[in-house]
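Example for tutorial group B:
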């Protein structure tokens, strides 16, 4: 809450520096109340918190993550609700959740009319959510001890053992320093490519976080610059790559990086999908120039695969064959340990290997074939966890599709599926009614609340939210 309060204060100051005037009573009033509530909650929680050393158990870690994300999103919704005239609570919550979970879906049009302070908060919320509020929490608070390991591994989708450090906190801090360094480089590059400092910093926040929010209603197309688009492609790929792998490359451990299964598969998917969609665009006469077709294809393949959600053109108007590839990329997502959403490439790879082994067992029942990734055997427990996770996500998507269909009975089948997948996997834009040129504003309030829950659930990878609905989770000990 203190971090949220500080970010809101920075947003108010940045907005004033960028041209907002404090005489805009609505913005000052809204941010003032939001900042007071955020810091007030921080003080109250600190006073109510336990004193002395304590042990963070798995149960407490899940509770902190699940309730922490929900509380952060509700607090982050206050500026929208208090500053924008006529903004409903459902719209404010949806936009806040979309920001902090780096989804990038929006209910607002004419973003250019936003006060600069509110726009800055909208952008920086994705940067905060990029590595996760809880990861920042682990890095900052030193008294957690062993609890830091549980929090990091549960929230980040990367195993804490991959940090190659006996102290998880120092490892997470190295990732945060890397995150800050990449952010500075990204903002500088954007400015050198022709953006104003305000636009460069705002878009840096949402690129490194693979979030997708823009300061313009027509997203990156507003800049009319092929160079800027290629720079977005580069930094979206960086955001979708495991920060642990980037750290290894900076240490000169190139052999580990080049032989990393997930990275090789991730980059191969990007290249193959880009080439296929480029050919489809050229063959069907959607784009005539090969270079333009390649740029449009690469931009949207990378944007969707890293679950960033930036757009330069209306890809919903492309032929259905391209939609099939983009939808598959939404589901697969980026690398584990990155800011991207989706199933994560490593889970897809291991899931396929598990299927192949079991297909072989159908005619060779006694065969024992270990499943390896990066030269290491994947334990039976890890395999089981991956299979369960994939099954759980499939069930949740199926149920959510039915829920959204009931709540929005006039929504098309393609729109229903892409709405659920886009929100659950934190992508942002989808197809049909929620295509790149549309917003989520037309949904009923109940649908927006449900989609907000899906976004949080997808961001924390299910369990931290699902356990909150299990009665036994709230019992003391039995």
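The residue assignment follows.
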């Amino acid at each position: 809450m203190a971090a949220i309060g500080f970010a809101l204060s920075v947003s108010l100051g940045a907005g004033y520096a960028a041209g907002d005037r404090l005489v805009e009573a609505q913005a000052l009033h809204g941010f003032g109340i939001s900042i007071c509530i955020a810091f007030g909650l921080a003080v109250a929680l600190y006073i109510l918190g336990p004193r002395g050393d304590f042990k963070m158990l798995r149960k407490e870690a899940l509770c902190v993550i699940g309730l922490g994300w929900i509380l952060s999103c509700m607090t982050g919704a206050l500026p929208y609700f208090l500053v924008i005239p006529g903004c409903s609570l459902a719209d404010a919550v949806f936009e806040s959740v979309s920001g902090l979970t780096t989804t990038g879906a929006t209910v607002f049009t004419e973003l250019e009319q936003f006060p600069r302070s509110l726009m800055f908060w909208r952008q920086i919320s994705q940067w905060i959510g990029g590595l996760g509020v809880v990861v920042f929490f682990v890095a900052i608070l030193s008294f957690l001890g062993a609890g830091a390991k549980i929090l990091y591994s549960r929230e980040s989708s990367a195993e804490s053992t991959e940090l190659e450090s006996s102290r998880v906190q120092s490892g997470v801090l190295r990732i945060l320093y890397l995150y800050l360094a990449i952010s500075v480089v990204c903002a500088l590059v954007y400015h050198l490519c022709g953006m104003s400092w305000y636009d460069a910093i705002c878009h840096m926040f949402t690129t490194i976080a693979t979030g997708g929010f823009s300061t313009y209603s027509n997203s990156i197309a507003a800049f009319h610059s092929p160079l800027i688009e290629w720079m977005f492609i580069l930094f979206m790929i960086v955001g979708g790559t495991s920060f642990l792998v980037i750290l290894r490359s900076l240490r000169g451990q190139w052999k580990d990086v080049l032989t990393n299964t997930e990275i090789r598969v991730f980059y191969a998917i990007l290249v193959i999908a880009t080439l296929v969609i480029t050919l489809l665009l050229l063959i069907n006469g959607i784009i005539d120039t090969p270079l333009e077709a390649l740029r449009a294809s690469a931009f949207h393949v990378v944007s969707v695969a890293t679950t960033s959600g930036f757009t330069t053109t209306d890809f919903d108007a492309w032929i259905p064959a391209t939609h099939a590839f983009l939808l598959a990329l939404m589901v697969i997502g980026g690398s584990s340990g990155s800011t991207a959403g989706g199933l994560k490439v490593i889970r897809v790879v291991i899931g396929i290997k598990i299927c192949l082994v079991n297909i072989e067992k159908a005619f060779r029942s006694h065969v024992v074939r270990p499943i390896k990734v990066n030269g290491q055997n994947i334990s039976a427990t890890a395999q089981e966890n991956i299979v369960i996770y994939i099954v759980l996500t499939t069930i949740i998507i199926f149920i959510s599709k039915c829920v959204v269909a009931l709540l929005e009975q006039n929504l098309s089948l393609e729109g229903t599926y892409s709405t659920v997948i886009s929100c659950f996997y934190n992508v942002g834009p989808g197809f049909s009614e929620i295509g790149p040129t549309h917003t989520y504003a037309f949904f009923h309030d109940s649908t927006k609340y449900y989609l907000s829950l899906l976004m949080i659930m997808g961001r924390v990878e299910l369990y931290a939210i699902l356990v909150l609905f299990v009665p036994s989770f709230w019992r003391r000990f039995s």
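The first strand starts at residue 372 and ends at 373. Compare this with the pattern of hydrophobic and polar residues in the output above.
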